[in-house]
Automatic annotation (TrEMBL):
NCBIfam families listed in its UniProt record: apsK, PRK03846.1, PRK05537.1, sopT
Record-given protein name: Adenylyl-sulfate kinase
Keywords: ATP-binding, Kinase, Nucleotide-binding, Nucleotidyltransferase, Phosphoprotein, Transferase
Biological role: Catalyzes the synthesis of activated sulfate.
Lineage: Bacteria, Pseudomonadati, Pseudomonadota, Alphaproteobacteria, Rhodobacterales
Binding site for ATP: 522-529
Length: 692
């Protein structure tokens, strides 16, 4: 119902806004408390309540009171909630205008605060509070009790990141997970259905099994992995998305080499749910709590210090000297204060863990002027979506109160595609950001590629060195840095701070001292277990690190005895092996795994699980099917050929051969000792064991 058709007996708009806000805050308060809260008489409140109910803004329900007298509870209808938002915008716009006029009268110049015009630009400045989705403390306590009867969904780590930024306003103007209409519009046009700029699909992906238990209009409880309720969601939409289309439009290609595309096809649920979210409590973080700020907490901090311009530095890597020089120059160019805003949610597989990175940031924070620089952590699950991600980061930083964002060369790029080429052009992200920055209300500061000029002992932008043919230009790539760390080589002080190098060396000791995993894969009867046993003996003979063999048959007996041989169960078995291997690797041991592991996606998931902590060496035991059948000591192939064993790899179920294994071992006419020795030589060449 448009505002112009509201009945004439409603209160004037400011009073109506106060009434709707109070009913939303305290729906079960007595009429006397409500009247006192908004400063009117009880009789006038009753008149207003009747008018608001007749207009469809408020729904009244009866409830018994503690003294057995009849009480009432008031809930805003969807129309009432929309009207409250519209009135809030109108109220704020008028107050900003009044402030602007007063500022001009006192100082002779405008304040620079722009009145609100569109919901997509909820706050046109970095000083005013932003809308959150949390209910009041009292309402949250009530909802926690009521949620015990709701169907519960246990959120994945990525969904927890998304939900936190939905609830605290980091994803403003979203009010929940996208509807199907909004999702389709975002995928195709980078806009919500109402035209608001938003480049990234934010949906609750669930399994088909869970989706079958949920009906449209149903409320579900959203819980973390410990079962703690974080919020509720009203399911308004349920659909099966076209994931190939999403990959093409959002990430530029339906290519599994892209980590987000791989996640989309191999980890995300098959069904998407959409609907508004009600926030009950924020996720619990036990790490770096003093560094975690919501958008409103940052805005309040900027407001307290009088920071009118703030440039954010997006990073998922440790800070080195080039980054420091870059951020200094960006803040100077924008004449702004600096917010170092690293991502501590999910980043690219293989990145330095956020605990190490934050320790590195804290180690160098005193290199920055304290009065103009601060640091806060962002619990964002990155998608590595390049140009779209840059726009997304801009909107998120705008919500956190920033006026500028440093956008780098190949911003949020995932690396190489399946053809060995970069997914995105080096300046695609900057170009797309520049196109939309006025609409977003946040300006871009171009990333300058900084290099060290030895003769002048300083960092300078590479494209601004006029005498580059006459000076010595030094730079260390990320690959070279990782090599030096792995081999324990010197990292010069001109490149990084000693404090940062110290922290990195704690986490990344020389490779010959790190834990690692050797993952054999091949057909049944290919010789995996035999070679794995020989390798285990050779490594134990060398000593220095504990060695554990996770053979497929042994793991099935002790860890997965309840599992069958369906694709789902085989995947689960391999992931269990991967989890145990990751724990061994994390704690400095050597894990040797020897399952069949027939599926590429599952092997990749295990690789990503382990490479957080150490090296993963995939060994394809490439024995032919014919040779495996000839060796068939257990008679399994014969039974499979006769149809007595269903879903047998190589016969009735496929084996997806590795295409990028670190080592391929041929076992036909080669003895076991030689095969194991090939693995030893490969491990030596990778620096994982010291040469004998």
């Amino acid at each position: 119902m448009p505002a112009t058709t509201l009945p004439p007996n409603l209160p004037e708009e400011d009073q109506l806004f106060r009434l709707l806000r109070q009913l939303d805050r305290a729906p079960e308060a007595s009429q006397r408390v409500t009247a006192e809260a908004i400063g009117i008489s009880l009789g006038r409140l009753n008149t207003y309540l009747r008018a608001a109910t007749d207009a469809g803004l408020v729904k009244v329900t009866e409830r018994p009171g503690p003294d057995r007298r009849q009480r009432f509870a008031y809930a805003l209808t969807p129309f009432g909630a929309d009207e409250k938002i519209r009135l809030a915008d109108q109220f704020l716009a008028r107050k900003f205008a009044e402030y602007d006029a007063l500022h001009a009268e006192l100082t002779g110049s405008a304040s620079g605060l722009i009145p609100l015009k569109y919901r997509s630009k909820l706050m046109q400045n970095n000083l005013a509070p932003i809308q959150e989705l949390y209910v009041s403390y009292d309402s949250a306590q009530k909802l926690k009790v009521e949620a015990a009867d709701l169907t519960s969904h246990d959120l994945t780590p990525r969904q927890i990141c998304d939900l936190e930024l939905l609830m605290n306003g980091g994803f403003n103007p979203l009010k929940g997970f996208l509807s199907e209409e909004d999702y389709n519009s975002v995928v195709e046009d980078m806009r919500l259905a109402d035209g608001t700029l938003w480049p990234m699909p934010i949906n609750l992906d669930v399994s088909q099994t869970f989706a079958d238990t949920v009906e449209i209009g149903q409320d579900i409880a959203l819980r973390d992995q410990e079962g703690v309720i974080l919020g509720t969601m009203t399911v308004t939409d349920k659909w099966v998305p076209n994931k190939a289309r999403e990959a093409e439009k959002v990430f530029g290609a339906d290519d599994l080499a892209h980590p987000a595309v791989n996640y989309l096809h191999n980890e995300a649920g098959a069904v998407y749910l959409g609907g508004p979210v009600t926030g009950i409590q924020q996720p619990v973080h036990y790490d770096f709590r003093a560094r975690r700020d919501t958008p409103n907490e940052l805005r309040a901090y900027f407001r307290k210090l009088g920071w009118r311009k703030v440039v954010a530095f997006q990073t998922r890597n440790p800070l080195h000297r080039a980054h420091q020089e870059l951020t200094f120059r960006a803040a100077k160019e924008a004449q702004a204060n600096l917010l170092i805003h690293p991502v501590v949610g999910m980043t690219k597989p293989g990145d330095v863990d956020h605990f190490t990175r934050v320790r590195c940031y804290e180690a160098v924070l005193d290199k920055y002027p304290q009065s103009t620089t601060t640091m806060s952590l962002l619990p964002l699950a990155m998608r590595m979506a390049g140009p779209r991600e840059a726009v997304w980061h801009g909107l998120i930083r705008k919500n956190h109160g920033c006026t500028h964002l440093i956008v780098g060369r190949d911003h949020a790029g995932p690396g190489k595609n399946s053809a060995g080429e970069d997914f995105y052009g080096p300046y695609d992200a900057q170009d797309l950001f520049r196109t939309h920055q006025e609409e977003m209300g946040i300006e871009m500061v171009d990333f300058k590629h900084m290099v060290y000029v030895q003769e002048r002992a300083q960092y300078e932008p590479a494209d601004e060195i006029a005498d580059k043919d006459n000076v010595t230009i030094l730079n260390i790539s990320g690959t070279e840095l990782r090599r030096r760390l792995a081999e324990g080589l010197e990292i010069p002080e001109w490149f990084s701070f000693p404090e940062v190098v110290t922290e990195l060396r704690k986490t990344k000791p020389p490779r010959s001292n790190q834990g690692f995993t050797v993952f054999f894969t091949g057909l049944s009867g290919s010789g995996k277990s035999t070679i794995a046993n020989a390798l285990m003996v050779k490594l134990m003979e060398m000593g220095g690190r504990p060695v554990t063999l996770l053979d497929g048959d042994v793991v099935r007996k002790h860890l997965s005895s309840e599992l069958g041989f369906s694709k789902e169960h085989r995947d689960l078995n391999i992931k269990r092996i991967g989890y145990v291997a990751s724990e061994i690797t994390k704690n400095g041991g050597i894990a040797i795994c020897a399952p069949i592991a027939p599926y590429t996606a599952t092997r990749r998931a295990v690789r990503e699980m382990i490479e957080q902590y150490g090296a993963f060496t995939e060994v394809h035991v490439a024995t032919s099917l014919e040779e495996c059948e000839r060796r068939d000591r257990k008679g399994l192939y014969k039974l499979a050929r006769e149809g007595k064993i269903k879903e047998f790899t190589g016969i009735s179920d496929p084996y997806e051969e590795p295409t990028n294994a670190e080592l391929i071992v041929e076992t036909e006419n080669v003895d076991v000792d030689n095969c194991a020795h090939q693995v030893i030589l490969k491990l030596e060449s990778m620096g994982l064991i010291a040469a004998q």
